[in-house]
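sry for the spam today, last one i promise. C-alpha cells for design, 412 residues
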C-alpha cells in the first residue's frame, strides 16, 4: 500500500484532546488506503522545559545526557498517539528513534540522519499494522547513544522518513495553515502562499522562519519529497496548505517571496586589530574551534594599519565567543583594543528567486528602512536574499514596512 507521512508539531499534540483530534485526521488517511507513518513532536513547551532542566542541573552539560533528557518529550506523545489510534480500532504502535532505527551522526544536539532502514516498519505494515507512530527529533549514534537533531528537528525526521519509505507525500501539520509571506504573528497582512520554491523556503528557514527546520527543506529538495505545510486545526482537502516544490512548478511569483527575521542575534566588534594578511583566519578559525556560528562579517576601512572587525552570532553563543577572543589575546595570537558586544540586534531578510534577474531590490530595501529611520548595522547578500542587521526594537516595524513596500499582500 502507498505510504503517507504525517507530522504533527507541538501545538497539534499539546493536550489529550488535540491528540484525539489529529488521530481522527490520521484515521481519514488510513480509510483512504494509505499505510501512515505519523511523526510526533513533544507537547508544546515540553522541550523548552527539558532544556531548562538540563541547564539548571549542569550549565556546561555533557551533550549526550542533554540528548537523553530532551528527546524524552517525543516518547510520551508517540505512545499516547498510538494508544489513541488503538482506541479507535486502528492497528498502530509507537517507535522510538533507536527502535526503527534512525541512524545518525554522533554530533549530539545537532545530529544528522545518515540512514533509516525501512525493514522493521515495513514488516509490521506487512502484518496488518496501519500506522507507525514515530517519535520525531531523535535517533541513535554509531556509539549507541540517543541523539537529537536540533530544535525543530521533527520536521527533518518527517522528511527523512518520506524519503526512506518513498512516501507519496510528507504533510507537516502545524498551527498555521501554510507558509506565509512572513510570520503571520508579526504582520497581520502576511499572505499564505499556495506554492513556494525549495530554494526560497530553504533561505527563509535558514534566516529564521521556523515553520520548517532548514535541514528538512534540504532533504526534501535532494530526495524530491512532495512536501506540504498545513494546519492541524482546520478541516483539510488535498489542496490545502502550501506545497514546497521545484521553481518550475510555479507559474507566477513576486520578485520578493517573503520576509524572514531572526530575533536572537548579537553583534561583536573587535576594535583596533592589525590589518594584515591572516588576521581574519586567526579570528574566525578560533571562533569556529569554539563552536561559534558566525553569520555576517564586516571589516572597516583601516586607519594607520589597524581596523575594526565586526560579526554577528546567536545571542546564546556570545559568552563562548568572548572567552575564545580573550584566550586568543592571552595566548599572544591576536592583539586588539576592546571587545564591543551589542546584544540588542535582529536580522531581517528579504528572499526571492526573482532577485536573480531583477535589480534594485537592495536599493529599495535600504530606502524603505531609511524612510522608517532604521539604521543598518551590517548587510549581507546572496543571489536570492538580502539581510540586514538592525536594532531589535525596530524589527517588527522593518518587517511590516518591507512587506508593504514589496506589496507581498498581493499575489503576483
Ligand atoms: P510546530 O510546533 O508545529 O513545529 P513551529 O512553532 O515550529 O510549529 O512553526 C510554526 C510557526 O512558525 C508559526 O506559528 C509561525 O509563527 C512561525 N512562522 C515563522 N515564519 C513563518 C512563515 N513565513 N509562514 C508561516 N509560519 C511562520
Ligand atoms: N520538540 C522539539 C523542539 O521543540 C522538536 C520539534 O518539535 O520539532 O525543538
Ligand atoms: Mg517546528
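last one done:
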Amino acid at each position: 500500500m502507498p505510504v503517507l507521512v504525517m507530522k504533527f508539531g507541538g501545538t497539534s499534540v499539546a493536550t489529550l484532546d488535540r491528540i484525539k483530534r489529529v488521530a481522527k485526521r490520521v484515521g481519514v488517511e488510513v480509510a483512504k488506503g494509505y499505510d501512515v507513518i505519523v511523526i510526533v513532536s513533544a507537547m508544546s513547551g515540553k522541550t523548552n522545559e527539558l532544556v531548562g532542566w538540563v541547564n539548571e542541573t549542569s550549565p556546561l552539560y555533557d551533550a549526550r545526557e542533554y540528548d537523553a533528557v530532551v528527546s524524552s518529550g517525543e516518547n510520551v506523545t508517540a505512545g499516547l498517539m498510538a494508544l489513541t489510534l488503538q482506541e479507535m480500532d486502528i492497528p498502530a504502535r509507537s517507535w522510538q528513534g533507536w527502535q526503527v532505527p534512525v541512524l545518525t551522526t554522533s554530533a549530539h544536539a545537532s545530529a544528522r540522519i545518515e540512514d533509516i532502514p525501512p525493514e522493521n516498519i515495513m514488516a509490521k505494515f506487512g502484518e496488518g499494522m496501519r500506522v507507525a507512530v514515530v517519535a520525531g527529533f531523535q535517533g541513535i549514534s554509531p556509539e549507541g547513544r540517543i541523539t537529537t537533531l536540533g530544535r525543530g528537528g521533527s520536521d527533518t525526521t518527517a522528511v527523512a522518513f518520506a524519503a526512506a519509505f518513498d512516501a507519496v507525500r510528507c504533510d507537516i501539520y502545524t498551527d498555521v495553515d501554510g507558509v506565509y509571506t512572513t510570520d503571520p504573528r508579526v504582520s497581520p497582512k502576511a499572505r499564505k502562499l499556495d506554492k513556494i520554491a525549495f530554494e526560497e523556503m530553504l533561505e527563509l528557514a535558514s534566516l529564521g522562519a521556523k515553520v520548517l527546520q532548514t535541514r528538512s527543506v534540504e532533504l526534501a529538495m535532494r530526495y524530491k519529497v512532495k512536501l506540504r505545510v498545513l494546519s492541524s486545526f482546520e478541516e483539510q482537502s488535498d489542496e490545502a496548505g502550501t506545497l514546497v516544490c521545484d521553481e518550475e512548478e510555479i507559474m507566477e511569483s513576486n520578485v520578493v517571496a517573503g520576509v524572514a527575521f531572526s530575533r536572537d542575534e548579537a553583534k561583536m566588534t573587535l576594535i583596533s586589530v592589525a590589518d594584515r594578511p591572516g588576521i581574519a583566519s586567526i579570528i574566525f578559525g578560533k571562533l569556529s574551534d569554539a563552536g561559534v556560528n558566525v553569520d555576517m562579517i564586516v571589516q572597516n576601512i583601516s586607519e594607520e594599519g589597524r581596523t575594526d572587525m565586526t560579526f554577528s552570532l546567536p545571542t546564546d553563543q556570545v559568552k563562548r565567543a568572548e572567552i575564545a577572543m580573550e584566550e586568543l589575546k592571552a595566548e599572544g595570537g591576536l592583539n586588539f583594543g576592546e571587545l564591543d558586544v551589542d546584544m540588542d540586534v535582529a536580522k531581517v531578510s528579504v528572499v526571492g528567486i526573482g532577485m536573480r534577474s531583477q535589480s534594485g531590490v537592495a536599493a529599495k530595501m535600504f530606502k524603505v528602512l531609511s524612510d522608517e529611520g532604521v539604521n543598518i548595522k551590517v548587510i549581507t547578500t546572496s543571489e536570492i536574499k538580502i539581510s540586514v542587521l538592525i536594532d531589535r526594537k525596530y524589527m517588527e516595524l522593518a518587517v511590516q514596512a518591507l512587506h508593504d513596500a514589496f506589496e507581498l499582500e498581493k499575489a503576483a
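The mean pLDDT is 95. ok im logging off now
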